[in-house]
Amino acid sequence: IADVINNYINNGLSVTHVNLKENDQGSKSLSFPKNWLNRLVNNNIEEWYGNVAIATGHGNHDNICVIDIDSPSHSGRSHANGFHSIKEWKEKHGEFPETLTCATPTGGIHLYYRVPPEINVKKRSGVLPGVDIIGDKGCVIAPPSSYEKGSYVWKNLCKIADANSSVLALMQFDPSKNSNSSLLFSIGSRH
User: Which is it for strands 109-114 and 161-162: parallel, antiparallel or unpaired?
Assistant: First the structure.
């Protein structure tokens, strides 16, 4: 596993340990090291034990953010079909570039995108039914992590694509506001 972690680090990604398990309600339970955001691993390592999460947003070198798409079978959620929500989004706003994609144990996927450094993408749940955005001060579980429901695996080994206008619009979309004013770019310095 150390080789996998070093590959992430050598590609500009910062990582942290994460403990995954299924809780009594059948949902995924996560726990991280204390102050994990201030203790990200970004230098090559010799050993690694347990599961891994990749820091998102300005927590990594290239402001990588993730679109987390849930399947209707995702436990503990509204059973919303994130794939249907994304299909509708693309019909209205345009296709997404092909990018590095991870399959989750519950049938969902994580789409990794590089966002311009001057854009701060907030970590938010339920941007669309079954769709979450993982940005600043967040992290995403990465292969080869696993727990009782299964393993996280790469669906492809594409390069991480630059976010196009459709992806950026979704990452900044605020469902509580009129969809006509959905681009809420937050310009600021890196932190």
Answer: parallel
